[in-house]
């Protein structure tokens, strides 16, 4: 059985992609799934947040993307059953390095298919994308079965989403016809702020059942955890943020079982 590949993407920065990748990955592993997180943001925030300092990063997502043969790309994290292929700044040259490679858009998909390149018996591969619709993000979309989009509860939340949806459509039309949207998760929801509630309602009006019921609250534990180099679920599993990501993991699994089709936003 090949693992389900889920790209966590939004070309806006600071919307909660990395926080979602780390904590959804941890929550899925806690539910007994075997999970690999591939960090393809040259900033490497997911790698740092999972306790792997820059100096300890051996093989990276760059090596993985350009690989032609299996190596031990993934490292075991402090979370049992959660593996990581870390990022370093070498990824920032990928766009240029691959420009003349005819399979530059399929590199990630090709690497995922190399026998023995991944930990055994994986259930899920989560890809933490960079904040841009660049070659790395396109590689993730071409390799993915589905896409999870974090959307910050702020005024311009929907801006940019239509561009992302168009990109998903063109990837479906060209290289990955079965690509689906797993769902859109509202992040950094502040219940004391009327705007947050208004935006959440707006987004649900526009996108309907594409939006997960679970909303990720603005929670200081989620922002503190990375500086301790642990997932929030380990830093404080009782925090509202940790509980929300556990609920989100349940919803993601339920949608996986339901195998929902791509729903087009209005
Ligand atoms: P992205 O990967 O989309 O750039 P991050 O996950 O890195 O976004 O989040 C951006 C910043 O906001 C980080 O400092 C992170 O710790 C913080 N953050 C993310 N989600 C939350 C949240 N729900 N509550 C509070 N802070 C958050
Ligand atoms: Mg990030």
UniProtKB/TrEMBL annotation:
Residues 5-181 form the AAA domain. Signal peptide: none annotated. Gene3D superfamilies: P-loop containing nucleotide triphosphate hydrolases (3.40.50.300). It comes from the Bacteria. It holds the Pfam family AAA_31. InterPro entries: AAA_dom (IPR025669), DNA_Partitioning_ATPase (IPR050678), P-loop_NTPase (IPR027417). PANTHER family: P-LOOP CONTAINING NUCLEOSIDE TRIPHOSPHATE HYDROLASE, PARA FAMILY PROTEIN CT_582. Involved in chromosome partition. Localize to both poles of the predivisional cell following completion of DNA replication. This is Chromosome partitioning protein ParA. It comes from Amaricoccus solimangrovi. The lineage of its organism: Bacteria, Pseudomonadati, Pseudomonadota, Alphaproteobacteria, Rhodobacterales.
